[in-house]
Design goal:
With about 325 residues, this protein is α/β, with parallel strands linked by helices. It is built from 10 helices and 13 strands. About 35% of the residues lie in helices and about 20% in strands.
Length: about 325
């Protein structure tokens, strides 16, 4: 054998490289190395996909190890119940040697020649407490804590010239007092990637039906250049968008797929917020309600989070813009 996934040497040794759910059947090994079985946080946050990795490891991969063989598992931590989390639980029958290398220990960086303490502290603010605890400290924490940690930077006049204007809506389907609000947000986006900055231009929300929302959303859209407004392409989102287009043909909507749950989706904008890269006006009629919702957001429970969802959706889609893109979305 001499392929990209399997090779052998003249002495009888060799290597087989496979992914999760790869064809291990009929193969044996003396050393099993499992590297990053969870592709990303979205997969690790999924109970179904975590279970799939666990079933693959216990039912297939680990059974391929010959007597006297060894297993090495290493991956970036995401969740208390990820593969390493399960293997090192107290109720696991196998004793593992667990090595964890936090980015900072006793105010000392792990690898100062690569990352200084100051750089790591700035990174902690950028990625947020939840991501920092798991990915950089190897100690995933349960959800429930606040995500937006600092009072935001304020502006007297928004930075709109030369910026991209992103419009985003988190739409609700009914106007019952127990239902969510429909929330729209306008963002002025400057730069790209990790250095991207955002000014929150306006936030508006109403507890109305899609039919009634179409009218005020059109006015909101026209106030900010009439660019397409982002709306989630979930089943409810697609249905609501269809109703709005039927009621108000002039409204311009673009369905975008949601990635992960609302807590996961909020991590990127929370990191930017905590670094001061998301600015809000000094004064605005909507500001008090907006700041209350954002600063109390935890991603769990029944707390209203429509404005946070609209903010996260707009920010995440702005992150995908290529350098040099400009104007209205």
């Amino acid at each position: 054998f001499n392929t990209a996934t399997e090779w052998r040497n003249p002495q009888g040794g060799g290597c087989l490289a496979l992914g999760v759910d790869g064809p291990f059947t009929g193969k044996g090994c003396n050393l099993l190395i499992v590297d990053d079985p969870h592709k990303n946080r979205q997969e690790a946050e999924s109970e179904l996909l975590r279970y799939r990795v666990w079933e693959w490891f216990t039912g297939t991969a680990s059974t391929r190890v010959e007597p006297g063989g060894s297993i090495i598992v290493f991956h970036q931590r995401f969740h208390r119940d990820d593969l390493i989390g399960r293997l090192t639980r107290d109720d696991n029958q196998t004793e593992w040697e667990y090595i964890n290398l936090p980015a900072i220990v006793d105010d000392q960086p792990l690898w100062p020649e690569r990352w200084t303490l100051e750089q790591l502290q700035a990174l902690e603010l950028e990625v947020g407490a939840y991501n920092w605890a798991s990915q950089y400290c190897g100690n995933p924490v349960p959800r429930g804590g606040k995500v937006f940690l600092i009072d935001p930077t304020r502006y007297a006049s928004p930075n709109v010239a030369g910026c991209r204007v992103v419009l985003s809506v988190d739409a609700a389907g009914t106007e019952k007092t127990t239902s969510d609000y429909t929330a729209a947000i306008a963002l002025a986006v400057s730069g790209n990637g990790p250095s991207m900055t955002v000014d929150v231009l306006e936030v508006e929300q109403h507890q109305t039906t899609p039919e009634k929302s179409a009218e005020w959303l059109l006015k909101f859209q026209e106030r900010w250049g009439n660019g397409k407004m982002l709306i989630e392409s979930s089943r409810d989102g697609v249905n609501i968008a269809a109703i709005m287009r039927k009621i108000e043909p002039r409204i311009r909507l673009r369905e975008v797929p949601p990635i992960g749950d609302k807590f996961t989706r909020a991590q990127a904008v929370a990191g930017a917020w905590n670094q001061g890269r998301v600015r809000v006006p000094m004064h605005a009629p909507w500001l008090k309600d907006f700041l209350y919702q954002v600063t109390n957001f935890t991603g769990i429970g029944s707390t209203k989070d429509d404005m946070v969802d609209a903010l996260s959706q707009g920010f995440n889609n702005a992150l995908s813009f290529t350098a040099g893109s400009s104007g209205y979305l």
